[in-house]
Amino acid sequence: MPISSENNDSRVSEIHLNPVNAEKEKHDSQNNIFNEMPLEITLKIFSQLDIQSLCKASMTSKSWNSIIRNYDSLWKPHCLTVRAVCRREIDNDLKSGYSWRVTLQRNYQKSKVKSEWLSGRYSNICSPINLPEKNMCPMDAETWGEILDAELER
């Protein structure tokens, strides 16, 4: 049976339009799956992420950002890890009523710098000019006292 030109054009249009529509439908259904997922499962998935991945996930969508920002329990394990280096700072922030997320924000960079100081990374630096400025952050006198004590013991 011969195919008319009109039928052929309609098939070509379908071929060009269907993949685009199918891709859009696939994308929309994927978004719906995440939006319809029970909160408990979403929280369980987010709780398995490291700090960097959790922060990246929060930038994925408004709904994920809201969940990650508002469920403080997601930040507690990370904050407790930082507490290994910044025990006094973390405990003081928690006593002052800061959330786990805010406490982590306030102390994460400090824990990295303090850990490097305590490990002796900067022990042989003779001048402030030689300090890696981008890695430094403000620290209180008690923290500097801890670092000085560690240096004196070395």
UniProtKB/TrEMBL annotation:
Record-level GO cellular component terms: cytoplasm; SCF ubiquitin ligase complex
Pathway(s) this gene product operates in, as recorded in its UniProt entry: Protein modification; protein ubiquitination
Region (Disordered): 1-28
Pfam families according to UniProt: F-box-like (PF12937)
Main subcellular location of this protein, as a coarse class: cytoplasm
Annotated localization: Cytoplasm
GO BP, sorted A to Z: protein ubiquitination; SCF-dependent proteasomal ubiquitin-dependent protein catabolic process
Gene3D superfamilies associated with the record: 1.20.1280.50
Keywords in alphabetical order: Cytoplasm, Ubl conjugation pathway
Keyword rRNA processing: no
InterPro entries in UniProt: F-box-like_dom_sf, F-box_dom
Subunit structure: Part of the SCF (SKP1-CUL1-F-box) E3 ubiquitin-protein ligase complex SCF(FBXO9) composed of CUL1, SKP1, RBX1 and FBXO9. Interacts with TTI1 and TELO2; when TTI1 and TELO2 are phosphorylated by CK2.
PANTHER family in the cross-refs: F-BOX ONLY PROTEIN 48 (PTHR12874:SF9), F-BOX ONLY PROTEIN 48-RELATED (PTHR12874)
Protein name (database record): F-box only protein
Record organism: Tupaia chinensis (Chinese tree shrew)
